[in-house]
């Protein structure tokens, strides 16, 4: 299977900023070194496709550097042309990974999962909502109609929830810390608030129950998995208490359910703010290994199989 990256695209960040800009290259190098699969550089999402998701005025302000001070504060990153360019590549990586998933059964973006981005707002390091972009693009291509978003980043996917609120054929499931950012929530199709300190066992039970509830309603033709590294116990922004084996069990659970359903899986990274970037990379790499090994064992299901059945 193929992986998508955008790690060559960098942007100016103040020293000490917690955005883990270095993780993307480090992860791509590990994926290549381990031979998990070829890694391709994602092209830039077109402004036309981004307009399938975002407000025209908002996109115009992003393009031209016209964000207000308040908008830039909500984004949490300093605006630059490089930041916007990078966001377009990161977002297209998810579109490409979703296309791979539909064709081959599995796809993975070594980036993406910018789930706080809303219709007309950047929030929490997120400019564009890549997952909703992929949903709208794939639908337009007639590849799949019904989607399930399984968002296990430790923060609620508020942008995704907002964007999918009126979409009866896309189900937004978010499992997240209840006492964590964002403090003003959008309402998703299923939101599971977990208390600070939730450990592996309780987390895995909650995820399993949530999938039991979501899947029969969602009846997905394709699943998008946000495999955030920030539920890890050492994460600076996490507040849950998952171990690395616990996160691997999370990935296995999502992969098992997807295989049981016989639908394609598109995996994206979302957040991860370990004080040492190597920890985040290790967690992301474990996800990439799990996805690749499941694919190589022949358990991945392309959309054509599913739609023909
Ligand atoms: Zn997060």
Characterise this structure.
This protein has a single domain, classed as Arginase, Chain A (3-Layer(aba) Sandwich). 44% of the residues lie in helices and 12% in strands. The protein has 11 helices and 8 strands. The protein binds zinc ion (ZN). Zinc ion is lined by residues 153-155, 228, 230, 270-271.
Features:
binds zinc ion, 309 residues, eight-stranded parallel beta sheet, 8 strands, 12% strand, globular, Arginase, Chain A, alpha/beta
Whole-number count of domains: 1
Arrangement of strands in the largest sheet: 2-1-3-8-7-4-5-6
Would you report the number of β strands? 8
| CATH homologous superfamily designation | Histone deacetylase domain
What ligand molecules are bound, each kind once? Answer: zinc ion
Helical residue percent band: 40-55%
What string gives the helices and strands in order?
Answer: EHEHHHHEHEHEEHEHEHH
Oligomer: single chain
Point out poorly predicted stretches: none
Helices and strands, with pairings:
Layout: E1 3-5, H1 23-33, E2 39-41, H2 47-50, H3 56-64, H4 69-75, H5 81-104, E3 106-109, H6 130-140, E4 147-151, H7 158-164, E5 170-177, E6 190-194, H8 200-218, E7 222-226, H9 244-261, E8 265-268, H10 277-296, H11 303-308
Parallel strand pairs: 1-2, 1-3, 3-8, 4-5, 4-7, 5-6, 7-8
């Amino acid at each position: 299977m193929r992986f998508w990256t955008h790690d060559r695209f960098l942007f100016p960040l103040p020293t000490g900023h917690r955005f883990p800009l270095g993780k993307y290259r480090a992860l791509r190098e590990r994926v290549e070194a381990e031979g998990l699969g070829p890694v391709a550089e994602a092209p830039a999402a077109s402004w036309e496709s981004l307009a399938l998701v975002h407000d025209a005025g908002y996109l115009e302000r992003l393009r031209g550097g016209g964000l207000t001070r308040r908008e830039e504060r909500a984004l949490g990153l300093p605006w630059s042309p490089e930041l916007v360019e990078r966001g377009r590549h990161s977002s297209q990586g998810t579109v490409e990974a979703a296309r791979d998933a539909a064709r081959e059964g599995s796809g993975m973006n070594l980036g993406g999962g910018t789930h706080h981005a809303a219709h007309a707002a950047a929030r929490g390091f997120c400019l564009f909502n890549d997952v909703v972009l992929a949903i709208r693009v794939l639908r337009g291509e007639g590849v799949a109609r019904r989607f399930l978003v399984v968002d296990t980043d430790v923060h609620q996917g508020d942008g995704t929830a907002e964007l999918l609120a009126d979409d009866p054929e896309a189900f937004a499931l978010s499992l997240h810390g209840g006492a964590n950012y964002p403090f003003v929530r959008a309402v998703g199709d299923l939101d599971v608030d977990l208390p600070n300190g939730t450990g592996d066992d309780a987390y895995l039970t909650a995820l399993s129950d949530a999938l039991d509830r979501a899947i029969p309603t969602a009846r997905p033709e394709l699943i998008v998995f946000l495999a955030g590294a920030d539920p890890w116990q050492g994460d600076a922004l996490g507040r849950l208490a998952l171990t690395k084996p616990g996160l691997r069990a999370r990935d296995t659970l999502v992969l098992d359910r997807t295989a049981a359903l016989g639908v394609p899986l598109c995996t994206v990274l979302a957040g991860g703010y370990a004080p040492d970037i190597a920890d985040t990379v290790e967690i992301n790499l474990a996800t990439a290994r799990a996805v690749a090994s499941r694919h190589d064992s022949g358990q991945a299901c392309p959309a054509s199989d599913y739609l023909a059945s």
